[in-house]
Design a protein that fits this description.
single chain, 242 residues, alpha/beta, Aminopeptidase, 2 domains, 48% helix
């Protein structure tokens, strides 16, 4: 009789342990929900995104010293994009966080311009990001030229996917929802840019607007306008990573 009671008690304990383990697992899922946008982190243990604000220091990019320089707009939008991505749980690396050029961080024997690009490439490749975005402003001899353009390297399938995801997000969240522009769309283009060709990870170069267009020049200085662009790019990156 004692052996039967002991056997029954062991079986009961096993059932209780199974129920207890199931309850603990359920509580863990309730406390730590898995977000779709971050699900890929579970398998590769990497949540790094690199932001590359173009130009800097001696290289002002497009614009006028008597007006505003591209390097400043690039950095302002890049800093906002960093904050937007950090809220989503990403570790964000910026190629520059102040008004500097990067040629002194390269060891190759080449022009200042090429050494600057080489340093940016090294920062991207060394950090092995999920993706990177290079931020720039555009310029044209035609003051009527306007709009956001997104570039990817022609042989990069993942770069194309990233560019398309950012484009869709900008069209929906920036042009349509924020600017109320029903007909304006981003333009996706291929280009053999060094930063896209020489890097080993999915990347896109975003020209956020034309400094030579008086209206876009004015808007690109606006803090809220910059936040909206950064937020739309962030949502495009999330869409790509889903």
């Amino acid at each position: 009789m004692a052996e039967k009671i002991k056997s029954y008690w062991i079986k009961l304990n096993k059932k209780l342990l199974i129920i207890l383990a199931a309850a603990i697992i359920l509580l863990l899922f309730m406390k730590f929900p898995t977000y779709k946008a971050l699900s890929i982190f579970n398998s590769i243990n990497n949540n790094i995104v690199v932001i590359d604000p173009g130009h800097g220091g001696i290289d002002g990019g497009a614009g006028s010293r008597n007006d505003i320089l591209e390097k400043d707009i690039n950095l302002q939008i890049g800093a906002k994009l960093k904050k937007e991505l950090m809220v989503e749980g990403f570790e964000v690396i910026m190629t520059r966080e102040e008004d500097i050029s990067l040629e002194n961080f390269s060891n190759i024997k080449a022009s200042r311009y090429r050494r600057d690009l080489d340093a940016r490439k090294s920062i991207i490749n060394n950090n092995k990001p999920l993706a990177f975005v290079s931020i720039h402003c555009n310029a044209s001899k035609k003051t009527t030229a306007r709009g956001i353009k997104i570039y990817y390297y022609p042989e990069s399938i993942e770069g194309e996917k990233l560019a398309e995801s950012i484009s869709q997000s900008i069209d929906e969240n920036f042009y349509k929802s924020y600017m109320k522009e029903e007909n304006l769309r981003t333009e996706i283009l291929t280009e053999d840019f060094f930063i896209l060709r020489e890097t080993d990870y999915p990347g896109a170069l975003v020209e956020v607007g034309f400094l030579t267009n008086p209206e876009e020049n004015r808007l690109l200085r606006d803090d809220d306008y910059q936040w909206q662009i950064a937020r739309a790019i962030k949502k495009g990156i999330l869409r790509y990573l889903q």
